[in-house]
Design goal:
- This protein is α+β, with helices and mostly antiparallel strands.
- The chain has two domains: about 40 residues, no CATH class; about 140 residues, Alpha-Beta Complex (Nucleoside Triphosphate Pyrophosphohydrolase), CATH 3.90.79.10.
- About 20% of the residues lie in helices and about 40% in strands.
- Strands 4, 5, 6, 7, 8, 9 and 10 form a seven-stranded mixed β-sheet that branches. The protein has a three-stranded antiparallel β-sheet with strand order 1-2-3, with no helix packed on it.
- A hairpin with a 4-residue loop joins strand 4 and strand 5.
- It is elongated, with a radius of gyration of 19 Å.
């Protein structure tokens, strides 16, 4: 890739909650021509997500919370149904992050996970790489009501729903969050839930 890129310059456009850069660079096309290009790149760090499932009950744990960017795009889609997820702190292991997020957001104490996917959900504009996990849960792991952290201004509704209903919610466009769809379809493909 290095032989196709040169003269890369970053210009910070905003540095509030995350960093929005304009990146100017020369890119060599297949015809051999170099062209000066400019793209915006939003850097908010990397994230994690997890599908908690219960084989015996055939259920999954999801969350419901308000998402301003989704609301801006379509006010009817401001309340988002998603897997438990969170932003990875600097130098934090993704698994450590998601185990902490599970306790904070949905109130379950899990000790281990299985990483099943790594993905960029919008690589044309956002630097965030998602590390996606699955883990089995049961009622004995419930240690609190979840709901998120007040200091982070989180208000999260915890949903325990049948796996079959979650799949139907994808088909009916009630669940439109990419990481959630990926993990539900992973579970469906690998048939650990009916």
């Amino acid at each position: 890739m290095e032989d196709k890129l040169r003269n890369i310059k970053h210009h910070v456009l905003s540095d509030e909650w995350a960093t929005l850069d304009r990146v100017d660079y020369d890119y060599k096309f297949e015809d051999g021509q170099w062209r000066r290009l400019s793209r915006e790149s939003y850097n908010r760090g990397n994230g994690t997500g997890i599908l908690l499932y219960n084989k015996e009950k055939q259920t999954v744990i999801l969350t419901k919370q308000f998402r301003m960017p989704a609301y801006v795009n379509n006010p009817k889609e401001g309340m988002s149904i998603e897997v438990c997820a969170g932003a990875i702190d600097k130098n934090e292991d993704p698994e450590v992050c998601i185990i902490r997020e599970v306790e904070e957001e949905v109130g379950y104490k899990i000790s281990s996970t299985k990483k099943v996917l790594e993905c960029y959900t919008s690589p044309g504009a956002v630097t965030e790489k998602m590390y996606l996990f699955i883990a089995e849960y049961n009622d004995s792991m419930k240690i609190n009501d979840g709901g998120g952290l007040e200091v982070e201004n989180e208000e999260i509704e915890v949903l325990e729903i049948p796996f079959s209903k979650a799949l139907a919610m994808v088909d009916d466009f009630e669940i439109i969050d990419a990481k959630t769809i990926l993990l539900l379809q992973y579970a469906q493909i690998h048939m650990f839930l009916d």
